[in-house]
Design brief:
The chain is an alpha+beta fold. It has two domains: 216 residues, no CATH class; 115 residues, 3-Layer(aba) Sandwich (Glutaredoxin). It has a five-stranded mixed beta sheet, with helices on both faces. Helix 3 packs antiparallel against helix 4. The termini are far apart.
C-alpha cells in the first residue's frame, strides 16, 4: 500500500481525531438486559466511536509500509486487546478509565515518534510494544464495557460477542480510512505527507494526554451518594420472614445458610443487610473484609440463593441493587445510611 496514501489518511484522521472527539467512547445506557447477539453491534459502536484505537491502528499501518507486515502487527494488537478484554471482564477487574485513556493517548505518541524517526530495522521489539499497548487497550475496552452493567449469566459469550463486534468495527474503520486515504492521495501530492501525519499522531496523543490529566485533576468530585452504573436505589419492598434475634455473626460464607429472620431483626434495629449472589472467591473475600472490618460496623451479610443482582443492600427504608459487584458503591450506601439520623431512631 502506497506510503503517501497512508500518510494522507493518517493526517486526516489525526486532524479530526483530536480530544475529546478521539477519546469520546460514546456508548451509554445499560447492557444488563441485552442478549448475546446484541453485544456485537455494541462492540461495533464502541470501536467506531473510539478513534484513539483507530488512530493507533492507522499509525501501525503507516509505519509498516506494506500490507503483509501491517496485517501481522494488527494481529498482534488484536491478540493483546482481546486477551485483556475477556480476562478483565470475567474477573471483574476495573481500572481508572482516565488512567487507561492517558496510556492509550501516549500509545499514539509512541507510534508517531517511531514513524517520524523511521521504520525499525528489527521489528520484534516494535511488535512486543504493540502487544503491550494492545493489552492496555483491552483493559480500556473492559472498563468501558463493565461501566454499562453486565448480566451475571452467559457473560463469557456476551464478552466474546462484544469482542467480535470490536473487530468488525475495527475492520470497518480501516476500510473507511483506506478509502479516504486514496481520495486524499490524489489531492495531496507531497512527499512529506507521511512525516506530517506522524507529527499529527504525536500532537493528538500529547494534547489528549494533557487534557485528560488536567480534567481528572480539576473535575468536580462526585457527590458522596453517587453510585456506579448498574447500581440503583429505590424504596425498600423486601421483607424478612420470622421474628428473629441478633445473628450470631456478621458475615455468612457461600457454604452457610444466612439467618434471614435474624437479618430482618437487625434491619429493624438500624443495621444494613447485604445479600450477595454469584460472586467470585476474591469478591467474597473483599465483601467479608468490609463487613467484618472496622468500616462494616452495623452491617451484616450472607448469600441469597436465586438473587439476580450480585449485591443487594437493604436498610429500614431503602434498597440498593447492583447488577455487578461494586464495593465502592456499597460503602457509599452504607456510609450514607449509618450517618442518617433514621438509622439511630430505628434502634428504637
Amino acid at each position: 500500500m502506497c506510503r503517501k496514501v497512508i500518510g494522507a489518511l493518517a493526517l486526516v484522521v489525526a486532524m479530526v481525531g483530536m480530544p475529546g472527539q478521539s477519546l469520546a467512547h460514546g456508548i451509554t445506557g445499560s447492557a444488563a438486559g441485552k442478549n448475546t447477539w446484541e453485544f456485537i453491534p455494541l462492540g461495533i459502536e464502541h470501536m467506531l466511536l473510539g478513534w484513539d484505537h483507530l488512530l493507533f491502528i492507522a499509525g501501525i499501518v503507516l509505519l509498516a509500509g506494506e500490507l503483509k507486515r501491517a496485517a501481522k502487527l494488527i494481529s498482534v494488537f488484536v491478540v493483546g486487546h482481546s486477551t485483556t478484554l475477556i480476562i478483565a471482564t470475567l474477573a471483574g477487574w476495573k481500572l481508572s478509565a482516565t488512567l487507561v485513556d492517558v496510556v492509550i493517548a501516549l500509545s499514539l505518541v509512541f507510534v508517531g515518534v517511531v514513524g517520524w524517526i523511521g521504520r525499525p530495522q528489527k521489528w520484534r521489539w516494535f511488535a512486543a510494544s504493540v502487544l503491550g499497548f494492545g493489552l492496555v487497550h483491552g483493559l480500556g475496552l473492559s472498563t468501558r464495557l463493565q461501566d454499562l452493567g453486565l448480566p451475571e449469566s452467559g457473560l463469557l459469550w456476551r464478552v466474546i460477542a462484544f469482542n467480535v463486534g470490536v473487530e468488525i468495527g475495527q475492520l470497518i474503520g480501516i476500510v473507511i480510512m483506506v478509502v479516504l486515504g486514496r481520495v486524499f492521495a490524489r489531492l495531496i501530492k507531497w512527499d512529506k505527507a507521511p512525516k506530517l501525519a506522524n507529527g499529527g499522531l504525536v500532537a493528538a496523543g500529547i494534547v489528549a494526554a494533557i487534557v485528560l490529566s488536567v480534567l481528572s485533576v480539576f473535575a468536580p468530585a462526585p457527590p458522596a451518594d453517587a453510585y456506579a452504573a448498574g447500581c440503583s436505589v429505590k424504596t425498600r419492598t423486601e421483607t424478612f420472614k420470622g421474628e428473629g434475634n441478633h445473628p450470631p455473626k456478621d458475615f455468612y460464607e457461600p457454604s452457610e445458610t444466612a439467618p434471614e429472620s435474624d437479618f430482618g431483626h437487625v434491619a429493624g434495629d438500624g443495621y444494613l443487610v447485604v445479600q450477595y449472589s454469584g460472586l467470585s472467591e476474591a469478591q467474597v473475600g473483599q465483601l467479608r473484609t468490609f463487613i467484618t472490618g472496622p468500616d462494616g460496623q452495623k452491617v451484616v451479610g450472607g448469600l441469597k440463593q436465586g438473587q439476580a443482582e450480585q449485591i443487594k443492600a437493604i436498610n429500614a427504608y431503602d434498597t440498593m441493587s447492583c447488577e455487578k459487584f461494586d464495593l465502592e458503591s456499597l460503602k457509599k450506601f452504607a456510609d450514607k445510611w449509618l450517618t442518617d439520623p433514621r438509622s439511630k431512631s430505628a434502634e428504637g
